[in-house]
């Protein structure tokens, strides 16, 4: 009856292996996870008959268990990464069982964030699959007494040149006794032999999800659990003065109230604190919370007003600031007195608003806590919960459910720690379900940002000098309040790595203090940086009266690897190659019919191209603006070079989604604050694109590539926003320099 | 009070103001119906009440007395309803959270209007938000169901 049984059946819990299973201590790659792995730790493939890697187990009946250690929030990663391992293993996908990993450092990084799951684990999965395949081949050869070269793994069995066959299940125990091949001895399949890589394999969850049977965090149930709803300080960092819970406790179904400990800096992922109402249903808990009378002390952020703050940020970027990148001599070029152009841009706070609000259930007992949560990062759950409860993190067992969207919100486990703290206080499993109002009012907001750009222009309108300044409260402030300027990782997102061919260039960043929680949101700082840079490039093209695509290609200059001053394996593996950026621009232009569709009044194309998460993406957006100033987006063409593609359909779906997500930001996204509190609270005042507002058709054109796989989930978002604004300019002559577009009058 | 959920008779004697959504989710553990906003803005909670697609967060228990409710779990056992089939075929879901509501809305639309125009699709589906942005595949799937229905009719 209770849903833990459902969870068990759906293999969210680990104990699905045969009791007679024996565990091999030797493990395959990666060495890093090897070192951290401890035999007998919680669940997953480690208890299979043969477990050659922390990600893989093979039962004697031939069932292949692949552990998926990344969270599923809509990218398909929970299916796609295991399909890489299965492919190298020559496993039959129908005999593969996928296990969702609990939070455990032995799996390596589990933070499903930063568009890095495939990028960071593609090789690891291939190595795990190839190593196990070679051991199965060796086991068969030994059994038959033939050279291993005559044996070949094929679709879940090893086949000898004579035609003899042995299934993987029959070989598992013998394979387990063999020496693990060295990394340098691994033999990989040739791309022509791939069964799943590059193919459109459906995700393992699609049927459950269409049947309403997928279990998300908000659906998780523990026996005997109660529900909690928390009243928090409307001002970030505010403290509880006093409260009256008489009326709340009078609500039918309400059991008690609990005061959560106050928030102390650095805030990080700590829960916000407040007063919790505990009840026997979600509805009663919410109703009870509405009846609480609470008074707060606002504290230092009580005066936060986003309209005033906007002016403050703009003033900051009007003055010289610290350079993050400096090439040539911008000032000398400006001093020559030639033609210049300058502009200021602004992007407001944004909220993630994943369709499923934050939700988690926790059961604290005897110094240990078991958790089911919609989380992007179960290891951060372990750390945060352990710190909140004062227990060792090995006593925090975090099971990951499906996530109803994440977009970065659910890698911050404050809400999970709330459930754990409350369970400890109440002595029962506690489920915390945030309402949409809580989600919008207590988010880690995408940073508000102001940008100033100035260019000196030659007689063809091409910049000879380019100065750009930005100011935004940093995500770094969450972890150290002393961080009042942009961190290198933020400036590296489309600011200090301008790919244009301009001899004099300076990128600056000024200080800004955070007055609300700031957090990464799908594509992070690229959002405001790309908006400013690619809008400004379009302004320059317009001033020069040149075709935008031709101008953009000229701006990029000859194909080359841009020296970003970064060294190390990532810089070597993923250099910024303007040739690849050029290619996606040309592809998007060609596929969109750019040359055949010159702008007319009320209808035009706009383009922007951006490099982020090591992927190259160009977007051509077609807009229609009617006489009332209403914007429609009938068509988008996105060209993307993301390196090697594992599942083309899921890659396309991410870009289709990014097109809509970008349209939401550009057209309507805005969070404001007054008297320290967030003004918006639900989809009425924080609208996101609906079907008729979203781009109607997004065509995704993928560049075939054998380069290492790069990011897919996020890089579609940044070029969308300037491309929409550039199209609106071409259609109406109105230049959008601050978002969202809905605040601008676009009719004549 | 009495009601019927997915064909089964049910009795309820709790808070008459409780939205149907929370009854389905918390009391009878039909969690395929999702909470997304609680205010009628998002459609994640869409179910069929006497055959019409309604947002269950906006229906109090007293308002559904003696009514017949179908939830996503009741549309079919194994996602075999034509709309679910089309959804799978077009690989519509990303995170999947909104999709129960989308499918219920689309199923009701197609029931009343087997050959909806783009404008018909917009005006039915505008109540349902998908934050992952799967709208174009939703449209494609609805059209595929309509085309399938057409093919069946042509055969007759
Ligand atoms: S939860 Fe009912 S419309 Fe959003
Ligand atoms: S699929 Fe994620 S909200 Fe629609």
Tally of individual helices of chain B: 6
CATH superfamily of the largest domain in chain A: Aldehyde oxidase/xanthine dehydrogenase, molybdopterin binding domain
Number of strands of chain B: 5
The largest chain-to-chain contact, stated as pair and per-chain residue counts, equals: A-B, 69 and 59 residues
The percentage helix of chain B is 40-55%
* Fraction of residues in β-strands of chain B: 5-15%
Largest sheet of chain A: 7 strands, mixed
Q: What gross morphology of chain B would you assign?
A: globular
Global mean pLDDT of chain A: 92
Radius of gyration of chain B: 15 Å
Number of domains of chain A: 3
The helix content of chain A is 25-40%
User: How would a textbook summarize the main sheet of chain B?
Assistant: 5 strands, mixed
Structure explained in plain terms:
The complex is a heterodimer of chains A (748) and B (156). With 748 residues, chain A is of the alpha+beta class. Chain A folds into three domains: 9-198, 2-Layer Sandwich (Aldehyde Oxidoreductase, domain 4), CATH 3.30.365.10; 226-300 and 358-433, Aldehyde oxidase/xanthine dehydrogenase, molybdopterin binding domain (Aldehyde Oxidoreductase, domain 4, 2-Layer Sandwich); 306-350 and 445-743, Aldehyde Oxidoreductase, domain 4. Chain A has a seven-stranded mixed beta sheet with strand order 10-11-8-18-15-16-17, sandwiched between helices. In chain A, strands 13-21-20-19-14 form a five-stranded mixed beta sheet, with helices on both faces. In chain A, α19 (648-668) packs across α20. Chain A is globular, with a radius of gyration of 27 Å. Chain B has 156 residues and is an alpha+beta fold. Chain B folds into two domains: 2-75, Roll (Ubiquitin-like (UB roll)); 82-155, DNA polymerase, domain 1, CATH 1.10.150. Chain B has helices spanning 20-27, 72-75, 82-89, 99-112, 118-125, 135-155, and strands spanning 2-5, 8-11, 46-49, 52-55, 68-70. In chain B, α3 crosses α6. Chain B is globular. Chain B starts with a strand and ends with a helix. The interface between A and B is large, with 69 and 59 residues. One FE2/S2 (inorganic) cluster sits between chains B (93-99, 130-132, 134) and A (74, 355, 405).
